[in-house]
Amino acid sequence: MENAALSLARGWIADARQIFVLTGAGISAESGVPTFRDALTGLWARFDPEELATEEAYRRQPALVWQWYQHRRELVSAAQPNPAHYALAALARQKSITLVTQNIDGLHQHAGSEHVVELHGNLFANKWLDGCGRCDTVPPIPGDPPHCALCGAMMRPGVVWFGEDLPRVARFRADHAAETCDLCLVVGTSGLVYPAAALPGVAKEIGARVIVVNTQPSALDETADLVLSAPAGECLPMLWQQEGA
Ligand code: APR
Questions:
Q1: How many CB atoms lie within 10 A of CB 71?
Q2: Measured by CB atoms within 10 angstroms of the end CB, which terminus of the chain is less buried, N or C?
């Protein structure tokens, strides 16, 4: 990472009035959170994500899918936020920002970020599949998803599965952030998964500057005005004042 690029980014961030931050799996890499595919190791190695992360798969094999999510919850529970998560929480105390994440690990919130827009849901949230509206749980059989005592509906993980729409409020807030920012900071995303990947382009179209932080080339490099090729946990703390520094 060149000093000139860092200084440029620092100046743009300092001058910005409204910042839209979009994060992806890369920001949690230094926390040791396994990505979707990385979590498919050991006993889970023989499965495809499409076999596990769809409503159809859940209806077909609820215990299997539920156990896979329990496994991922355990992996994420062992992870701590890293300096990149803390840096974004510090930025929100200095500037007006909207933090939009594709991650489901909750690490931004653990680092102190508030009002995080979770485009793909949260690993620790649950909701009812075909619930009756008054659902109440019966004590679950270990390994099985909990069921509603009244209607028998199953509980399901509160994440966005393949083929599902993004949560409406999160989508609205993310679109609004992209449409109203003057700086867009994209951290640790491959830029391959839509509709999230389209948001930096929206920001660019309305005249915002776009900065990409990634250890590798990404599909959003073409949209970027500046690419910082560095690990997020090293780069972000250098871009603005950290508390106590
Ligand atoms: N710092 C910055 N970037 C990093 C780091 C790091 N330490 N480590 C990895 N990266 C980058 C990679 O180079 C890659 O471009 O993070 C990106 C991660 O890309 P993906 O794994 O595709 O994650 P993401 O873009 O969040 O995927 C979007 O796809 O798997 C689904 O629903 C899942 O939310 C996820 C969505």
A1: 16
A2: C
